[in-house]
Amino acid sequence: MSESRKINVTVWHEYVHEKRNEKVREIYPKGIHGAIADFLSQNPDMNVRTATLEERQHGLTQSVLDSTDVLIWWGHTAHEKVKDDVVQRVYDRVLDGMGLIALHSAHYSKIFKKLMGTTCSLKWREVAEKERIWVVEPGHPIAEGLNEYFEVPNTEMYGERFDIPAPDQLVFISWFEGGEVFRSGCCYNRGKGKVFYFRPGHETFPIYYQSEVQKVITNAVRWAAPTVNSPAIKFGHVQPLEVIPEKQV
Ligand code: ZN
After folding, report:
1. What is the CATH number of domain 7-117+185-224?
2. Which end of the chain has fewer CB atoms surrounding its CB within 10 Å, N or C?
3. pLDDT digits over 16-37, tens only?
4. How far is the CA of 203 from the centre of ligand 1 (A)?
5. What is the pTM of this model?
6. Strands (E), the chain
7. Residue 4 alpha carbon to ligand 1 centre in Å
């Protein structure tokens, strides 16, 4: 594969918990963005960089976004600190074809809520319970290489109802030890862009080191990458393509 055909991935992280909480820092010494960038960088078809909230324009300038094929988003405690003009810029790029992968608590990020148009609220509980993630669309490219289910031994629970529009494709459903279920892998088309929500990844558990989770995120990057040479989108008043006989009305 030539250099020009590599997928340019930007991993965005609010990067707040690691600085405040020693337990999180011990699990993710390079930050969650660093852990995700580390395993994605091992793929020869990907160029990976990171961006964080504290950078100028949150590290998401127009030129960064213009050269990003797939943006990965992790946020939890600082959603409101993300500036609206940056959210609009990301939104416009998604409609223009950039892929977006929203992880875990990014369900409540400004960008995900704007793309969904709903509250994106859910139930939650943090008692380190087990999660079993079932593949419900085995032919989907994001499920490639997985077994029919995999388990996260200790996690935060997210439960239905998850207030999202019905996904265009639902790839994963989670079951939790406490009894709840959740739509954990949701695909959407928005304009030319592809959006994937993937649930696992609470900051106090080493979930992003788990091989199945890494495989899903890697597959999702390839799925969400823009379609090369997709048709231009035209809106507004147009002339007919055929001659229409004059109508008497
Ligand atoms: Zn969490």
Report:
1. 3.40.50.880
2. C
3. 999 999 999 999 999 999 999 9
4. 6
5. 0.96
6. 7-13, 46-52, 70-74, 99-103, 123-135, 149-159, 169-176, 181-190, 193-198
7. 36
